[in-house]
Each structure stands twice: as C-alpha cells, then as structure tokens.
Amino acid sequence: MPVPIREEDRKRLLEKANSLPLTPGVYIMKDRDGRVIYVGKSRKLHNRVSQYFQNGEKNIKTARMVAGVHDFDYFLCETEIEALTLENTLIKQHTPKYNIKLKDAKSYPYIKITDEPYPRLVMTRRRENDRGRYFGPYSGVSTVYAVLDTLRRTLRLPTCTRRFPRDIGRERPCLYYQMGRCVGPCTGQVSTEEYAALIRLAADILRGHTAEARRRLAEQMHDHAEAERYEAAARCRDTIAALDRLSQKQTVVAAPDAEQDVFGFYEDEVTSCVSVFYIRGGAVVDKEDCLSGAERILDSETLSTFICEQYRMRTDIPATVLLSFPMEDAERETLSAYLSAQAGHRVTVRTPERGPARALCELAVANAAERVRQFRRDAEQDEQSLVRLGELLGIGYPQRIEAYDISNIGSEHLTAGMVVLEDGRLARSEYASFNIRTVDGTDDYASMREALSRRLAHLDDADGSFSHRPDLILLDGGRGHVSVVRGLMRERGLDIPVFGMVKDDFHKTRALCTEDEEISIAREREVFVLVYKLQEEVHRFTVSRMSAAKGRTLTHSSLTRIPGIGDAKAKRLLSALGGLAAVRAADEDALSAVPGISRADAARIRAYFAERASGGVGGERP
Fold first, then answer.
1. What is the pLDDT, as a whole number, of residue 480?
2. Domain finish residue from 36, 62, 94
3. How far is CA 276 from CA 209, 304, 324, in A?
4. Any residues with CB less than 8 A from the CB of 15 and at least 6 apart, and which?
5. 24 close to 9: Cβ distance less than 8 angstroms
6. Which of 405, 400, 540 is nearest to 465 (CA)?
7. With b meaning 16 or more CB within 10 Å and e meaning fewer, what string describes 210-221?
8. Is 522 part of a structural domain of the chain?
9. In CATH, what number is assigned to the domain containing residue 440?
10. Are strands 400-409 and 412-422 parallel, antiparallel or unpaired?
11. Within 10 Å of residue 398's Cβ, how many Cβ atoms?
C-alpha cells in the first residue's frame, strides 16, 4: 500500500476543498515542487475534490495520487461540456503523472483519399485542411496497411506512385496490370468516371458500408450487361465476388446494419484496460486496447474524458456508443451532447443491461481482461529479466536503460540514436537522435562522446525526458566506446553504469563489456533476449534517422540546383507544398503563390522538372 497523505496536509486540503462551490469545474492537483500530477473534472467541484481528502477506502492508484498532493488549483466552468473540454486541454498541456496519456494527434494514422482526377489511397499521420477525404484514425500502421492492401486487391486499385492523367502512357503498364490486379489507369483506357466509381466503392468499404458497395456494383453490372459491355460487367462480377470473400473474413457480431462502438472496461488492483470495438455493417472493422499501468488513474469517473478523446480525431462517430460500465445520468448526457456536437448528428450513449448489446459489452470486457492478464505476465517477465541483468552487472535494478548507436554513410549524415527502455518496455516517446556537428570523418568514438555530452548536459533540467537519470547506459560498441564515455562521466562527476554491447558472428550481443572485462550473457536467455531487443531497436532507429537526414539533404539539394533557388526558397517551397513530389507536380500559379517565389522562379522550376522528365538532366532522381 502507498504511504498515506500526512494528516496535517489532509486536513488543510480538506478545508480548502470544503470552500469550493457546487458548480461544474476542473481541478488541478500539484506536488510539493508545483508540478501538476493530476487533472480532473466534476459536475460539482465541492463534492468531488473533498472526497479525495476525506478518510475512507480508496483504490491503490487514487491513494498513491492523493499521497503526493501538496496543493490544488481549480477552474469554474459554465457547463459540464466546457469542463470536459478544458480538462482534456489541460491533460494534454501538462501530461500529468497520474492521468492516462491521451492520444497524440501525430501518432495515429489515417487513410486519405486524395483530391485528384484519379484519386489515390495513401496513409498519412496528419489531417490537412484540404479537400482530401480522411478515414480513421486507425489503431496502428499495420491495420492501415492491411486495409489498403485489401482495398487494392478487392477493387484492383493502383499501388504505384504515378499521377494521372499526367503520367498516362509515359511508361509501360506494370506487372500488376498484366496479372489483372490493377485496372490500369496508366493505359488511358479507364475514364475518370469509371475510376471515380471505384473510389466511391472504396469510401463505402472504409465507412463499413460493404453491403452498400455490393449493391452499387450489382447495379453497375446490370447496366453494363444491358448495354452489352460484357467485359465491364465481368469486372463488376469479379469485384462482387471479392467483396463477398472480404465479408466472410470479417467477424460479424451484430445485425448487418449495425453502426456502433463498444467500450469494455476491466481493472484489477494496479492495471486497467479499455477495449474498444469499432463495429460497422455488423462487423468489427477495428479494435483498440488502452492500458493504464500502476500509476495512471483510469476509473469509471475519468472514462468520459478518455471517450471524448477517442473521438476527437475520428471522422466516423456512430449514432450509438455502448458502455460496459455504469455512468451517472448527468455525466452520460454531457458525454452524449459533446459527441453529438462533434459528429453533427445525435449520438446516444448507453449501458445496456441485457440482450445482444449487453453481450457485445461483455465480449469487450473479456478482451480487456485478457489484455490486462497478458500485460501483467509480460511485466513480470520483464522485471525478472531486469533483476537478473542488474545482478550480472553488479548494479541496482535498471528501471531506465538508454542505448546508443552511431550510423553514417561515409563521412556524411553522421547520426547518433538513443532509445529508452523503462521497466522492460520501449518508451518510444523518449527516443532522441543527434546530428553530429563537431566530428570530421567517421570517428565513432568522438561521435559517441558528442552525443552523450549533449544528452548528459540536460540531466539537471527541471522537466523533460532528458531530466530522467538513466540507471544503465548501453553502447553499440566495445571497450573503446566505453572508455570514451566513462572519461566524459568522470569529467562531469557522474557515476552512471556504462557497458558496451559486444557482438558475435551473427551480429547478436554475446557479452557486455566495461573498460576492463567482458560479462557473457550468451547463456542467460532472458537477459540475452532483452539486450538483443535493445540492440536491434537502437540500430533500427538510428539508421532510420540517418536515412531521413540523407533524404532531406537530397530533396533540398535537388531544388537548390535550380538557378535562383537557394536554401531559403527551397525550404519555403517544401514547407508550403508538402514535399518534393508536390513541388514537382505544382503549376506556375501554385508555385508563385508561395511567399518569396516569383513568377520567374516558378517558370524556372517548371522548366527544370520538365527537362528532367524528358531525360535532359542526366536522369538523376532526388
């Protein structure tokens, strides 16, 4: 059990809470250093905040949070919806220790149908203010690619990056067209109307309206057959068959016309999970699990904030949202009003007590419970591995491990990468990369020293990920790398354990080394797996950052080859238009609309890319 709040603090805070009004508002809990550790909302501030400081039973996570409270602030709100919105904003602003982490808009992928004569289906992480149509967000990149692959196979949509009608007839049709897996707009035999019909079908499927897509296809097949366009009718027939196969693969859990989302909530003493089923056309089209660990408070009173955040970025809020857990009438009405305003139509939020809807909720709860059990099993395994690693190295429990690697191409694009493992789990939000600035050539030792010097300079920061002191530093290298970093540590008066990862002939870490000795981990299976995971992740991350830096340089240098286009103009073009491909495709009007780009600049840019397209600039590619 956590250490309880000091009695004098409890009485002082309870007295302050008792003076709060019985109105909607948001409260902010702070620790002794003034850091925000929890943000909450309430329909009646007085009742909710005073409950925290009254004697009585509290769950472990709430008791732990209350024990850390030194003071609190509050905001009064006119309405409960205003309080809900403000709470959401403050959680994002402060990322409090005990609040569940809300979605980061940059991290969740969408499927976008571009606004072009022949639209493309692409994955994107950003919702631009453009005329494209966005679907999602989806729970992960793998889900997006699976959906895109299914759509392309089913509707025979192109997978290439060509732009039509610009690229019609420029190259021979690809192998997918020869195999009958692409309709082949590159041949010029697919009109914009025919292609638009396919895109409408894709949009129907993305919305979960597979039955509607099938109906449209059946009508088109009939029309083609009536007009004796038998090849077109056959293509419709084949697409209908593909759609039927797709429908058979989906897990049907409700009536064919059901459009609803189901939230199942499960918690044990220290871990909570919400499982969300997104049901469209009676089938589960996506699923998302959100875990809350030992510190994060996720209970029935904070779930409305979580639900609102789930829908902040979604384009398809259904008319019905089912909850497995009870919610006060006033809270449910506030949530319904908020979601209705977001969706532009009435959204009903309810907790079914019986029937098929209740069965769906129980299914979501069972899924959440299994996810919690899996999480606990994995956490126990990770803890055992970290304990054993600490024993082998003669250090304490390495709760936070930082691993470093260096990547380069020749003497250019020298990049250091840092990945973080916290309690045995990759903490991707803590990753960092360093473009090496002071090293000439390919000096790995000097590069590692610069990266660690820059990272360790922030250990005394008040907040931020670099303020967290690592319990162990692992370097992708041998004794030389360790010696350089240990020397840096001595200069700064630091005593953080540093070890190098020594590889075997299969490029797997067989031992960890200091300046003086090697410690074999080859026969320590749990430790070996843990370190190998870190070794592979830091290598992957560092190479990806180095490749991105190389790509940015090549893209930038491609534009600066154009007479009159220097670094500043190249940056403006790439930023305003969204990349080199967009610059290449833009006409003179679009180019000259970019601040700082004249009509003469635009004409030179168009002439440059036209010459390259005809092969007049050596055929180089960015």
1. 93
2. 94
3. 20, 14, 11
4. none
5. no
6. 400
7. bebbbebbeebb
8. yes
9. 3.30.420.340
10. antiparallel
11. 24
Tokens of 67: 């024990």
The answer to whether residue 190 is domain-embedded is yes
Assess whether 412 and 528 both reside in one domain. yes
Q: What residues contact 210, with CB distance under 8 A and at least 6 apart? A: 204, 243, 246, 247, 250, 281, 283
Cβ proximity of 107 and 140 under 8 Å: no
Q: Which tokens is 50 given?
A: 């005073």
Q: Quick one: 511 and 444 in the same domain? A: yes
Distance CA(15)–CA(10), nearest Å, equals 9
Mean pLDDT, the chain cut into blocks of 10 residues (622 residues total):
79 93 93 90 92 82 88 90 85 84 64 90 83 81 82 86 84 85 88 89 81 81 84 80 63 63 88 87 80 67 81 83 90 90 92 91 91 89 94 94 84 82 89 85 88 90 78 94 95 94 89 94 93 93 75 61 84 77 82 88 87 51 30
> How many domains, in total, are found in the chain?
5
Beta carbons of 291 and 271 less than 8 angstroms apart = yes
What is the number of other CB atoms lying within 10 angstroms of the CB of residue 339?
Answer: 23
Which is nearest to 453 in space by CA: 490, 400, 503? 490
Both 480 and 405 in one domain: the answer is yes
231 and 362, same domain (yes or no): no
Is residue 525 domain-shared with residue 409, that is, in the same domain? Answer: yes
DSSP string over 49-63 = HHHHTSSS---HHHH
Per DSSP, the three-state class of 295 is coil
Q: Indicate whether 387 belongs to any domain.
A: no
User: Residue 23 has what DSSP assignment?
Assistant: S
Q: Which two tokens stand for residue 12?
A: 């002082």
The CATH number linked to 574 is 1.10.150.20
Q: Where do we find the tokens 């409090």? A: 96
For residue 424, give Cα distances in angstroms to 118, 230, 292, 395, 401.
Answer: 47, 60, 16, 16, 9
Spell out the alpha helix ranges (H) of 424-524.
444-456, 479-492
For residues 419 and 431, is the Cβ–Cβ distance under 8 A? Answer: yes
Same-domain pairing of 119 and 235: yes
With a pLDDT cut of 70, the percent of the chain lying above it is 89
DSSP-derived secondary structure for 331-365: HHHHHHHHHHHHHTS--EEE---SHHHHHHHHHHH
Give the burial class of 451: count Cβ atoms within 10 A of its Cβ; 0-12 exposed, 13-18 middle, 19 or more buried.
buried
Q: How far apart are CA 183 and CA 193, in angstroms?
A: 13
Assess whether 88 and 156 both reside in one domain: no
Q: Are residues 582 and 448 in the same domain?
A: no
Separation of alpha carbons 158 and 405, rounded Å? 38
- Specify the CATH number for the domain of residue 14: 3.40.1440.10
For residue 4 the two structure tokens come to 């309880």
Contact yes or no for 240/221 (Cβ under 8 A): yes
Under DSSP, the state recorded for 104 is P
Domain that includes residue 448, residue range: 400-544
pTM: 0.62
Among 181, 214, 249, identify where a domain stops: 249
Q: Is residue 552 part of a domain?
A: no
